[in-house]
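User: Show me a protein chain along with its predicted structure.
Assistant: Here is one chain, sequence first, then structure tokens.
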Amino acid sequence: MERDKQIIQLYADMISKKKKIYEAFLKLNETSKSTIKHCVDTAYISMSIGRGLGLKESQISELAYAALLHDIGKADIPIEILNSTKSYSTEEFEEMKRHVQYSEQYLKHIPRRIKRAILEHHENYNGSGYPEGKSSREISLYGKILRVADVIDALRTEKPYKKAVGRKEILDYLDSKKGILFDPAVVSATINEFKI
């Protein structure tokens, strides 16, 4: 866990030196502290999944970087949608989905593997995700890991419009959606890594 903190601190320091990205983080920190927390928590989860899959430490570090940046595009989402206390309307949800595309402007000098994972973190294994409707082998391993980590943190976090879900329910949900939303191998590694 101490090593994970060091990795996250390293990339947080790197982010602070990238002007455009740092400005987006400052804006998010003012408008949605919960998004910043979610990115950090998703990084920890991603690293655990990466270890469960037997990835090298260099790959785990890249995963942490991708997770820290995965919602950077939310800096451009209108604040009333970003901080909504109720479920989204169809129009609001369509705007929220655009955060993936909004991310691109911040990722110009980010390594390709990391950028790709960020742009794929809402792609589903069966092709029903967004923004491109990629499926199965079209999605990078990092993108598949971020997809699972992002959902885990979303499920376990209480929001004004939903209760937090416990560990067993989260693992059951992942298992029920493997081969649909999530890569089966990533789900298996996650379940093994997060079992009580």
